[in-house]
Design a protein that fits this description.
By secondary structure, this protein is α/β, with parallel strands linked by helices. The chain has 12 helices and 11 strands. About 5% of the residues have low confidence.
């Protein structure tokens, strides 16, 4: 074989080997290659858990890897947040968080992280409204009726909430009290089941609760919704006015949930996750599943949008903690 041909074949062999190795390296570096863990700051089956599972299941389909939900409800979400912050910033450990985490910023004297610096939001999942409800037999037909009763009997009208002191519903009721400039007694029941019994038995005059927990009773006719606390009417209850429409100013109290990664996650990974989350939320079955649980799906949010929303939540609920005079933990 002539020398020039041997040199050519040697060169060609080197090029082919390099191409194969390069292709293998590129394939190995693609995200994702293994299961993704979605850490949730709530117990399984709760209002915050179900949207995470709905979106997580669709993410698994879109990304081609399993998405495993891990529930860590302890310590106001701090345990879950710390778990994610200390994970490798590679996109394989994500946090579902939102209003609960924003409230924790004001409830705890010290925290083992900085919420807005140690996490990078990926995309918003959706919004959830709070709703003011009464038993179907209640003489209170409108928000104006409730306000009139509160003004007529200061401190005697009772409003139940399905959480404990310092929770979203309790703090929301405090903001409602400030908005109507009236004094009613807030009764924390610690669970939606106990609250439902209290409302239907007349043990409390009304309830202020996250809509997903009350929606089945409202649709079933057992309780009646006087108003929702979002910026616009809830799509599940289009005939129910908002608090603003009912004459209560400064009472918008929408809660939210979003997905975040540890700070330092590569921008390309965040971009891929953002696209997948938004694609999942654009699909009809996901939208119907979320709406059926009282949540309003987000649409096309960018990481910067989610960051601004979270910062706004921290500020909004800090005011509620101050009004409620909740002892710091």
């Amino acid at each position: 074989m002539p020398p020039y041909r041997r040199r050519f074949l040697s060169f060609l062999s080197t090029v082919l080997v390099s191409a194969v190795i390069g292709a293998g390296t590129a394939s190995a570096g693609e995200f994702p290659e293994k299961p993704i863990t979605l850490v949730v700051q709530a117990a399984a089956g709760g209002a915050a858990d179900l949207p995470a599972r709905i979106v997580g299941q669709k993410l698994g389909v879109l990304l081609g890897v399993p998405v495993v939900v891990e529930n860590m409800p302890a310590a106001g979400g701090i345990v879950a947040t710390r778990r994610v912050i200390h994970a490798n910033p590679d996109g394989y450990t994500l946090l579902v968080y939102g209003t609960k985490a924003a409230i924790a910023e004001s409830l705890f004297k010290t925290r083992p992280y900085n919420l807005t610096k140690d996490l990078t939001p990926v995309a918003l999942i959706g919004f959830t409204d709070l709703a003011l409800v009464v038993d179907r037999k209640s003489p209170l037909k409108t928000v104006a009726d409730l306000v009139a009763a509160v003004k007529a009997k200061p401190g005697q009208v009772t409003v139940g909430v399905g959480d404990t002191v310092g929770g979203i519903q309790h703090l929301g009721a405090e903001l409602l009290k400030a908005s109507i400039q009236g004094n009613f007694l807030i009764v924390p029941y610690g669970s939606i089941s106990k609250l439902t019994v209290a409302v239907r038995s007349g043990e409390v005059d009304a309830a202020f609760e996250l809509l997903p927990g009350m929606l089945p009773q409202v649709k079933g006719g057992e309780v009646r919704a006087l108003a929702t606390a979002g910026s616009q009417r809830n799509s599940d209850l289009p005939n129910v006015p908002t608090l603003a429409e009912s004459g209560v100013p400064n009472a918008e109290m929408t809660t939210l949930s979003m997905i975040a990664t540890p700070a330092g996650t590569p921008p390309a990974v965040i971009a891929k996750l953002n696209n997948a989350v938004n694609q999942a939320l654009s699909q009809r079955d996901v939208q119907e599943a979320l709406r059926g649980r009282g949540a309003t799906p987000a649409a096309g949010t960018k990481p910067a949008d989610a960051q601004r929303l979270m910062e706004g939540q921290v500020t909004r609920w800090r005011d509620a903690v101050r009004l409620a005079k909740v002892p710091l933990q």
